[in-house]
Input
Amino acid sequence: MLLKGLSLGSHRLRLSLAGYKELTQTVELAAGEVKQVEAKLQSAGPKPLSLAEVEEALIQTKAKSGQDVLNFPIRLNNQMAALGGVVESADSAPTQQSYEVFEMLSKAIDEQVAKWKSIVATDVKAYNDLVKQQDVPALMLKAASETR
Output
């Protein structure tokens, strides 16, 4: 990128891109000088796991009516159920393709379950520890006399 029309002196460059650490650099410009600045962006690291992402991979959370299946793609649970319907409808043993699809879907579901277990083991535990540390009551019940 070539920037023209900059005044002489010190300029602070800031480069940011989603998924990368922000880069800030100061550049000094003299009269008639052209400078080339090299920027190497560093990854911001792995994206934190989200329970919503796991849920949305396993089930279609946006479908609210029978017609919504036409508007939103089916997820792993529906794919596995559809495979079960295909296998169940045949009068013979499942085909090799059915076994292959079952293995593929099982692997994808196992990956999501592993992500869920990781979230529960780390994030949920950290949240519970913080609640205990701050001495926040898990449930706040009002006495029967306060509710009337």
